[in-house]
Amino acid sequence: MNCLKIDLNKLNKKKIIKIRDFEYNFLHILKEYKIPIEIYYKYLLSLENFKLKNVWNNLVKKWNSVRKELKENQSFIQSIHNKVILHQIHSNIDDKKLNELLNEFIDNDIFRSLCVSKIIQKCIFPK
Questions:
Q1: pLDDT digits (tens, 9 = 90+) for 100-117
Q2: CB distance 19 to 46 below 8 Å
Q3: Is a pLDDT exceeding 80 seen at residue 8?
């Protein structure tokens, strides 16, 4: 899937070691597109808990930036995405809380699930 702008084989080959177990499900909508969502979950499970908020805050930062850039775009203004407002978190969160936040944000929307997967990819492979 080229909208992710990364070779999924490269993503799958990345050596990631889980340090805990949790059943994430926020990207379940991407399964039907044969995107290996497990790598995203595994990456989150490899992070120390205090770093989970950084993943969320990266999403918030990018989402708010896009909203600001498109504030004059009529299509965006009339879209359901314009109504989604996110706020940064300044305290530690756990896997359960991150999963809840991401599920709430994605809300079974393919576009938002791709946004989240792209944000996590950038965490895995920063430029």
A1: 999 999 999 999 999 999
A2: yes
A3: no
Closest CA to 25 of 104, 120, 92, 99: 99
Helices (H) and strands (E) in the chain, counts: 6, 0
- Report the C-alpha gap between 122 and 63 in whole angstroms: 14
Sign, CA dihedral 118-95-11-107, equals negative
Tell me the whole-structure pTM to 2 decimals: 0.89
Two tokens, residue 77: 């203004």
Reference 3, options 114, 110, 108; nearest CA is 114
Q: Token digits for 48?
A: 């120390």
Helix (H/G/I), strand (E/B), else coil: 48: coil
